[in-house]
Design a protein that fits this description.
Helix content is 17%, strand content 36%. It is an alpha+beta fold and 289 residues long. The chain starts with a strand and ends with a strand.
Amino acid sequence: MRPFGILPIHKPAGWTSHDVVAFVRKRYKYPKVGHSGTIDPFGTGLLLLCVGPATKLAPHLADLSKRYRVTVRLGVTTDTYDMTGKAVSTAEVPPEVADRIGPTIMKFVGEHDQVPPMYSAIKIKGKPMYELARQGITVTLPPRRIKIYEIVMGEIKLPRFSFEVQCGPGMYVRSLAHDVGQNLGCGAAVEDLARIRIGDLTLDRAVDPKQLPAQPVMLSPDQLLTAWPKVRLGELEAGFVAGHPISLSVLFDRPALDTGQLVFAVGRNGLCGFGEVKGGKIHPKGAFV
């Protein structure tokens, strides 16, 4: 049977997200493995690997909300916005800053524009920005609209403080820390970073790559994309998998569906693909074959 599903991995510090993909691909000889969103090499936490046809869902998994646990070091800025980078500036952190940290960081809850760090995986003309940065090429990206749902303050012990943040796609924790440091007037950089939740999935469901069993337990995509309705196709399965739209009028046992909605298609043996509702039909977007 062709491997298919989502493998939640607890990424260790020092591994790149690509390292994890390569390790799992080699370990299980999977022909196709990808991930749904990088974690910085120094960071740890929940990384979703998409195996087989599930790689088609990676962009949609990337759109799920994420939660991070963060420790920030005040009084320093670096070129990477974290403590693995080259120091750009240092400053004293006066005791009164402690009382300003909470009110300052809470201003970032909600929607606002954020400039991504130069050291990021965003591609410019096909090249990741971090590669350009290493070559000494500076590119200033325009701000991107991001959303922060919640920030929960943790311990404040100068020059460090910690917090948890839940956010939508595209938010850079390193940029958030940098912006807070600029607002406080002393600079800041991320010292420790862990992704602890993606959507409804928590870190305790993930496995260290070096502790993976002989037969890994993968999650079905509908366990993560829980907002997507399921439509049972019956005898229409073959046509859908072949790329033919299915009229909603011939689907009797289906939930109410809105235009633009993404749905899972269910065949005789479980999920067989996904599609988008448009013009009274479900148009195939990907088949799990």
